[in-house]
């Protein structure tokens, strides 16, 4: 696997998800739906936290969350350093 393979795979998945979101109804009860995506690559750990849902831990997850927060609605941002 080349060093850029995880990043390229993440980009393909995000594009596929964005196309799927765009092809579906974009409103529910008159409320417009928007998606913000932030992508970073790296090692993460997935486990159970205090609640019943799984949680993702690690630098890559934290950076992706911050990048996603910076995205405008219907935008995909890929961390260039990822």
Topology order in helix (H) and strand (E) letters: HEEEEEHE
Spans where pLDDT lies below 50 across 5 or more residues:
none
Helix content: 25-40%
Sheet-strand content, in percent, reads 15-25%
Mean pLDDT over the residues: 80
- Report the biggest beta sheet as strand number plus sense, adding barrel if it closes: 2 strands, antiparallel
Distance between the termini: 16 Å
Rg from C-alpha positions? 15 Å
Q: How many beta-strand elements?
A: 6
Total separate domains: 1
Tell me, briefly, the overall form: globular
How many alpha or pi helices? Answer: 2
A few lines on this structure:
This protein is α+β, with helices and mostly antiparallel strands and 82 residues long. It is built from 2 helices and 6 strands, in the order αβββββαβ.
């Amino acid at each position: 696997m080349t060093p850029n393979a995880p990043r390229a795979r993440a980009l393909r998945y995000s594009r596929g998800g964005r196309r799927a979101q765009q092809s579906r109804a974009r409103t529910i009860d008159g409320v417009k739906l928007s998606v913000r995506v932030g992508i970073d690559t790296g090692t993460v750990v997935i486990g159970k936290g205090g609640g019943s849902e799984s949680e993702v831990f690690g630098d890559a997850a934290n950076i992706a969350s911050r990048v996603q927060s910076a995205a405008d609605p219907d935008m995909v941002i890929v961390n260039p350093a990822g």
